[in-house]
């Protein structure tokens, strides 16, 4: 099994509803995002997936959130937790790559590249992950 990882970052504000603590107040993070792609079959060029295409797609997805208040995005239902952000990035990345002709969706037994996990770090010590378990 091969795995590749790319990363990017973005800055955004948010607050958490239904939370009893300081995170219920508007605050911001410099988020770091790691994206993991797995597969057991390399392409003719010996790559699982071109880093350039993956990084470009990830920057597009995260760029849409950069310097925004994430609570303003309906997809988060006023609760943009790191877990929900990771899930959102995962689904958006699959869609953006599909538009580029790259199918990274998961299917049991798939040998070519598939998006395995998205890690969202709010700080260097706090991370949420959305992943596909085989």
Brief rundown of the structure:
A 4-stranded antiparallel sheet has the order 1-2-3-4, covered by helices on one side.
Shape: elongated
Q: Extract low-pLDDT stretches.
A: none
The whole-angstrom Rg is 16 Å
Largest sheet: 4 strands, antiparallel
What does this structure look like?
The chain has 134 residues and is of the alpha+beta class. The protein is built from 2 helices and 4 strands, in the order ββααββ. The protein has helices at 51-63, 82-99; strands at residues 2-14, 27-39, 114-123, 126-131. It is elongated and about 50 Å long. The mean pLDDT is 95.
List the helices and strands and how they pair.
Blueprint (H helix, E strand, L loop, with lengths): L1 E13 L12 E13 L11 H13 L18 H18 L14 E10 L2 E6 L3
Antiparallel strand pairs: 1-2, 2-3, 3-4
Structure keywords:
alpha+beta, 134 residues, four-stranded antiparallel β-sheet
């Amino acid at each position: 099994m091969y795995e590749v990882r790319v990363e990017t970052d973005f800055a955004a504000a948010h607050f958490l509803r239904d939370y009893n603590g300081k995170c219920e107040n508007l605050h911001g993070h410099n988020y770091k995002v790691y994206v993991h792609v797995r597969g057991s079959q390399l392409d003719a060029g010996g790559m699982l997936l071109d880093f350039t295409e993956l990084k470009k797609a990830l920057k597009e997805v995260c760029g849409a959130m950069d310097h925004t208040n994430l609570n303003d995005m309906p997809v988060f239902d006023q609760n943009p937790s790191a877990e929900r952000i990771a899930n959102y990035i995962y689904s958006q990345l699959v869609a953006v790559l599909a538009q580029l002709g790259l199918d990274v969706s998961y299917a049991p037994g798939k040998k070519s590249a598939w998006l395995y996990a998205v890690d969202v770090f709010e700080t260097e010590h706090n991370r949420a992950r959305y992943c596909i378990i085989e």
